[in-house]
Amino acid sequence: METLEQFMTTIGLDEGQIQNRKTYLGGSSAKDIVDGNWGKIYDRIVGGEREDLSKIFKVQLGHVTEHFNLLWFADMMDMTASDPTTDPWRNLDHPYIGCLPDSIMTDTRGNDCVVDAKHTGAEAPWWDDEKVATYYFPQAQHNMIATGIHDFYLSVIFGNDGPRALHIKYDEDWCEEYKGLCKNLWGMIEKKIHPGDGLPKKLTIPEISFDDMRTLDMTEGNQAVEWGNNAHIWLNDKEAFDRFESCKKEIKEMIPDDVKRAYGDSIEAVRNRRGSITIRKIK
Predict the structure, then answer these.
(1) Burial of 26 by CB count in 10 Å (0-12 exposed, 13-18 middle, 19+ buried)?
(2) Spatial CA neighbour of 124 closest among 164, 81, 184
(3) What is the spatial distance between Cα 115 and Cα 73, in angstroms, rounded to a whole number?
(4) How confident is the model over 8-31, as pLDDT tens digits?
(5) Residue 123: its pLDDT value, please?
(6) Residue 62 and residue 69: Cα distance in Å, rounded?
(7) CA-to-CA distance for 166 and 162, rounded, in angstroms?
(8) What is the predicted pLDDT for the residue at 207?
(9) Which of 17, 98, 106, 121 fits a disulfide with 88 by CB distance 3.0 to 4.6 angstroms?
(10) Which one is predicted more confidently, 216 or 34?
(11) Longest dimension (CA), the chain
């Protein structure tokens, strides 16, 4: 069987693509651009600093599942997927804005869209559609600017579910501001002027809605009382649930590794053959 190192050479960007990324601002830099982390981007492009992600499992898992994710997405959405490109797409007016999209897909009407595949953690409370779409919003807009294709989907695997299609619309006003940031940053890169810390002001991510759905204030209208009662119960029960989860964790941590059953004060904790501990009430 091949080694991990041998397998790693078959996924991700090759050395030529990595070197070529120094000639443009890529989609993976978009969030740092809007967050003001310009020094990080400058150091990568000008200084040649590279973060070693080869042994970060969750990062590499995304690379491994990417192809399957895209094929499944294309079948689910009835789209035709293009082969991955080895040369970056570049904006015609701003060639320093480029990207290597995971796929360009075409629907049955002949309309193109950019699709990026993501494999993230299990859904709520850590992730949900809105949080993922908000996090990747800058990259989505960046890739639409670079390709000139103003339609974008995230194909997201949550844990072992999915993939789920998240549509992100092109925001023309936001993109105009973003292009201004890219122009200023690239000017510093060309002139070898390190941007330092705290530059520039952050660019706000707008609220994202899916399928034109609306927000609603439930404290108004006929259901206000019922909503309020349920909200009060939920808040009280959540506090109790959080205490319950914290106690459960502490109890498990108290049990030595060589103990298969611990008991006292009307509860017992039993370790199974796989090492998992179950806590239950006893008489």
Answers:
(1) buried
(2) 164
(3) 9
(4) 676 666 666 666 778 899 999 999
(5) 65
(6) 9
(7) 11
(8) 78
(9) 98
(10) 34
(11) 76
The yes or no reply on domain 9-190 and CATH 3.40.50.1980 is no
> What is the chain's length?
283
C-alpha 159/C-alpha 219 separation (Å) is 34
Radius of gyration of the chain (CA): 24
The winner for highest mean pLDDT among 64-68, 173-177, 191-195 is 173-177
Domain boundaries, the chain: 9-190, 246-283
Q: How far is CA 163 from the centre of its chain?
A: 13
Phi-psi region of 270 (alpha: psi -120 to 50; beta: other; left: phi over 0): beta
Name the pLDDT band for 211 (thresholds 50, 70, 90). low
CB distance 168 to 142 below 8 Å: no
